[in-house]
Amino acid sequence: MTTSAPNARLGEVTQRIVERSRDTRSRYLDRIAKAAEAGPRRARLGCANQAHGFAACGVSDKAMLRSGAGANLAIVTAYNDMLSAHQPYEGYPEMIRRAARDAGGVAQVAGGVPAMCDGVTQGEAGMELSLFSREVIALSTAVALSHQTFDSSVYLGICDKIVPGLVIGALAFGHLPAIFIPAGPMTSGLPNDQKAKIRQLFAEGKIDRAALLEAEAESYHGPGTCTFYGTANTNQMMMEIMGMHLPGASFVNPNTPMREALTLEAARRAMQITALGNEYTPMGRMLDERAFVNGIAGLHATGGSTNHTLHIVAMAAAGGIKLTWQDFSDLADVVPLLCRVYPNGKADVNHFHAAGGMAFVIRELLSDGLLHRDVETVMGKGLDAYTAEPALGAEGQLVWRTGPQQSGDETVLRGVAKPFHATGGLKLLDGGLGRAVLKTSAVAPERHVIEAPARVFHSQEELQRAFKAGEFTGDMVAVVRFQGPKANGMPELHKLMPPLGVLQDRGHRVALVTDGRLSGASGKVPAAIHVTPEATEGGPIAKVRDGDMVRIDAVTGRLDVLVPADEWDARENATCDLEDSHWGCGRELFAPFRAAVGAADAGATIFG
Fold first, then answer.
1. From the annotation, which residues make up the binding site for [4Fe-4S] cluster?
2. pTM, whole model, 2 decimals?
3. Superkingdom, according to UniProt (predicted)?
């Protein structure tokens, strides 16, 4: 493979992150170094403490833990059998225990973390717990590891808030090595573009609920991750390009020989990189500034989820690294868009994987200096290992072979010499209405600038009622506010997409501005999301009135309201009674989270 120095912009952004984070990163590294100094903590626990830790183990595992001769591997699992993506994890602990024993150690399920499905809670009260579930997962991970009996760790989690929460929690124990083990996407079902069309037909009242349910059931039809390129699959891309997966592990389907082989090898590798051997690779040292820049580059190159403008910031902060949305924006200027996966195209992640997948993306970005090559990964030093792909040998063993040198389908995946777009899939907006992000990769270029009168709503249900009443007859920017983290937990607002898509298909120029979220499945309608400051905090979005001209410009990166300055300054902020969003479905328990949460551009986190 040809080598090249990192792109100049990549280097500049990385260096300023290093400078900005110097104090906080140094303190973090000192803390994890101190935690690692004494060696495995288990050996220094009291006898009663140790006995509690292995009381339920089998004879051989108990003997191993008593002697302290082998490594003890923590399994932190987000298994439940309601999430299709996580149902395959049911049998993983036993596989991992078997691999650990073969490697001369022991594996124990250290703890479970909650895993909610945003697909189930869309438009429901539970969605207002969704973002905060990330913090609960981080806290649960810390509880799982707090017994201090482990030498390494593996994490079973895939979906939206689950991987970021696991990373945040794991970084609190950053002296431990860590490997993330995916379960893979479900096989392809009803094509995503057909599903989206059926949703629009239902929104227009042209098909009934039974037809809609049948289409949805054909789309989400078996075990595995949903196949569109939303937050769950963006998580998998990110864990691989940041070196937390085995190479090529992200998009292998569940319940296949290859998936089992990758799972066993991940467990074995987690045992090899402990402080007991010669390849000690603590997670907190491994995930440095370069690794996070690689994650952002992957986000842009693949047109990934807008949720990661929150999650990557929050994850990095857990490791003492300070990221800003400006870092995302500056990297987007130089990282080309290489993928067209729904909602950015018609293909799903199975098609992406078959066309060359992560090995091809990483190879292409490395060849153009758009990734840091010399990072630490769970495979050792350097990202070159991630340009290989796994295969099964004649005896069913896992082997590595040279990855694809060219795309198998250029309608889905392209090289850096012929990208779909010269710049990345996300755009930072700034202006009189605050700061926001817009997923440009899903939006036709002719809709990157929208100027239209505002229609203001305080919930997605209000907008849906207005649509059904036939109130929308022309161009419009829908402003949906009081949806930020302090207001109601910053829910995803996917129920907005079908009606807005219908209006756009009717020939109207429409857009959305909101302090809420739309995640990786935001579609063809331009959407300025994560607006900060949010309305509840007195952000300018709280001043917008029906009829104000709003301009979204994803070319120059502006988000403005075209109201005379004297009139704008004289306006009072609107208010909203949020009582109904603060109780029921457990939401009353999250009042301390709403009170403590930070702004969207700081990761919308309660930590720090």
1. 159, 226
2. 0.95
3. Bacteria
